[in-house]
Amino acid sequence: MKIPFLDLGASYRELKHEIDTAVSRVLDSGWYILGPEIDAFEAEWAEYCDAKHAVGVANGLDALILALRALDVGPGAEVIVPSNTYIATWLAVSAVGATPVPVEPNPATHNIDTTRIAEAITPRTKVLLPVHLYGQPADMDPILTLARQHGIAVVEDAAQAHGSRYKGKRIGSHGDIVCWSFYPGKNLGALGDGGAITTNRADLAEKVQVLRNYGSRVKYVNEVQGMNSRLDPIQAAVLRVKLKHLDDWTERRRTIAELYTKGLKDSGLILPHVPEWANPVWHLYVVRSTERDALQQTLAAAGIGTLIHYPIPPHMQEAYAGLDMTADTFPLACQLANEVISMPIGPQMERQKTADVCNVVCAAD
Ligand SMILES: *Cc1c(COP(=O)(O)O)cnc(C)c1O
């Protein structure tokens, strides 16, 4: 048996002709920075996300950094982040000189526990930064209410949530700015790095547009100290092709997730919990086991690839040793890090293979 965690080559091969044609179009055009391909993708991505504006940037981390910069978040400011996210969420806060203030997850959904946000808010809090982890939306209504009450902005890390819906509405414009990654392994993935922000606020879209391009609107006239963080037109052309297939590919992920949920219901594992208002896109199918490492080894021995998202929470990383936090500071984040394991999932995974995975999991104990 050979079941990879995710087969990116298979994704390319399925659309090879369309993608090759799109890439050739850019190569032939002689236009390799910003330009018509970026404009077209931005319009299509904004429409897909139910947002007024989209701005393409170099990657998901930069999208977060540019969002915070557009909101004038800097030294002295605090930004509320999940304790159990991918480290990029925290790194963006640190990159602008602000302080990440972690909040523990809801143990059922693994998304930020909205009942614990209020106690983390201080007069320095400038942004609430929820993450739609594994492709499942965070509970946005309480987050937006708190933000309004305290006069603080909301930035969403939607790097795993392309197409996901909260109470029927697509993720893309609930908060002030929504940040996307098109890293190849994401649900909408480029053939290299890519990212974007979406927003309903014209002022913020314009700020990110200027900041991503050296702080310049007119060539060689620089109004602010910007970055070079532009989406590559070749990647934009690839993303335009893939966007047309995104809903289909999400449906295939849904089918696989349903098969796992049925096939693993008696496995003894803790399975994903989906609140009735959430419409997840199954970037990851994450289960929990106190025997996680043994389970991963059993699956590996059977030729089944799994990954751990994520083995070390940000506060326990050497990168954040300066915060002087211990495992006890955020015990839930640490517990999840020790127990989670992500099953193989992807649009090209054959349905029957989920049964093979379930059989191996259920036989192990
Ligand atoms: C992938 C990811 C990012 C970063 O995206 P890059 O494009 O790799 O910089 C940020 N946050 C989360 C939750 C992610 O999964």
Structural key phrases:
single chain; 365 residues; Aspartate Aminotransferase, domain 2; seven-stranded mixed sheet; binds pyridoxal-5'-phosphate
What can you tell me about this protein's structure?
The protein is an alpha/beta fold. It folds into two domains: 8-101 and 113-240, Type I PLP-dependent aspartate aminotransferase-like (Major domain) (Aspartate Aminotransferase, domain 2, 3-Layer(aba) Sandwich), CATH 3.40.640; 246-364, Aspartate Aminotransferase, domain 1 (Alpha-Beta Complex), CATH 3.90.1150.10. The protein has helices at residues 8-14, 16-29, 36-48, 60-70, 88-95, 140-150, 202-212, 233-243, 246-263, 292-301, 331-339, 351-363; strands at residues 53-57, 78-82, 99-103, 125-128, 153-157, 165-166, 169-170, 177-181, 195-199, 216-218, 221-222, 278-279, 285-288, 340-343. A seven-stranded mixed β-sheet has the order 1-9-8-5-4-2-3, sandwiched between helices. A three-stranded antiparallel β-sheet has the order 7-6-12, with no helix packed on it. Helix 4 (60-70) packs across helix 5 (88-95). The longest helix is centred in the last third of the chain and has 18 residues, at 246-263. It is globular, with a radius of gyration of 20 Å. The two termini are 20 Å apart. The model has no long low-confidence stretch (mean pLDDT 97). Bound molecules: pyridoxal-5'-phosphate. Residues 59-61, 85-86, 88-89, 131, 157, 159-160, 181, 183, 193, 195 line the site of pyridoxal-5'-phosphate. The site of pyridoxal-5'-phosphate (PLP) has 15 residues, from helix 4 and helix 5.
